Amino acid sequence: MMKRVVVLGAGGFIGSHLVNRLKSMGHWVRGVDIKPPDFSTSSADDFILGDLRKIEVVEQCIGNDIDEVYQLAADMGGALYLFTGENDADVSHNSALINLHVVKRCVDCKVGKVFFSSSACIYPKYNQLDPDNPVCTEESAYPAQPDSEYGWEKLFSERLYQSFHRNYGLNARIARFHNIYGPEGTWEGGKEKAPAALCRKVARMEPGGAIEVWGDGLQTRSFLYIDDCLDGVLKLMESDCTIPLNIGSEEMISINDFARMIADVSGKDINIKNIPGPVGVRGRCSENSLVREKIGWTPKYTLREGISKTYDWIVSQIEAQVEANSVSG
């Protein structure tokens, strides 16, 4: 059955992919963001360019005729943006304001179901000190000690959606994303995340050169390919599960080894130069026991499969950039 769906943050990486997936399923989709997608034209039936920090924009895009809302809009970026402390006030204020507007409007308009994209950044720093044994089970979120204001805001907003569920019947679903990556994600400019940044560095590296990796490179992460992320979101929305669930991969890797994997995919030999820089927690990896139990979801793509697709796309972007510069020059 066709649904009328609103995707907030539809100009972003995950949001633009989600619009495409929902359209392929036959739904009517309205996308909303302060900017259009960076790398393709949105396939949304209706796209509203607007600032979701303004209540009048939220009221314009969510009405009584909407069946589902997917709330992915946030002020965020990679480690350089989130972990230096320079953007803490904007990250906290902007994202919280959007969510405060959205929950109230969804209740007022009796929206059938709402998805909120939380983050693995909500997990306590004290459980992620050992790069080889991080603890990221859903119940480990408390006592709370996120490592960034971004994580604190996400945790606050989780509680906001859950309280509106308890008090006003808001039918909310919450996923804690773990490092989603893939084609059409930001790959330069300061807001890119580790997979795209490393792909860019390897792609641009001259033969015999070295790429810079922040920290000692022994910090660990898991990374989830965008198609797997969308599968998890949609399965969660189809379920009756109202507690936050991890949506991530259990394939943990050190950042140095991740760089070596990307180099192997590229066919290049690389040297790694570890330099000071913002790195976040020492170790983080999704723990998927609960999400398997509750909604039966598990990722399909290995990290190598996903990063191969991502690397090829970033190479195409670099080549297009070089061609455009040569034409303009």
Give a written overview of the molecule.
This protein has a seven-stranded parallel beta sheet, with helices on both faces. The protein has 329 residues and is α/β, with parallel strands linked by helices. It has helices spanning 13-24, 55-61, 79-82, 88-108, 149-168, 194-204, 226-238, 255-266, 289-295, 303-328, and strands spanning 4-8, 28-33, 46-49, 68-71, 113-119, 172-177, 180-181, 210-214, 220-222, 224-225, 245-247, 252-254, 271-275. The chain is globular, with a radius of gyration of 19 Å. The longest helix is centred in the last third of the chain and has 26 residues, at 303-328. Helix 1 crosses helix 7. It folds into two domains: 4-181 and 223-247, Rossmann fold (3-Layer(aba) Sandwich); 194-221 and 251-283 and 301-321, UDP-galactose 4-epimerase, domain 1 (Alpha-Beta Complex), CATH 3.90.25.10. 47% of the residues are buried.
- Enter the CATH topology name of the largest domain: Rossmann fold
Distance between the termini: 52 Å
Question: How many discrete structural domains?
Answer: 2
Mean pLDDT: 96
The CATH class of the largest domain, by name, is Alpha Beta
Q: Tell me the number of helical segments per DSSP (H or I, 4 or more residues long).
A: 10
Low-confidence segments, ≥5 residues, pLDDT <50? none
CATH homologous superfamily name of the largest domain?
NAD(P)-binding Rossmann-like Domain
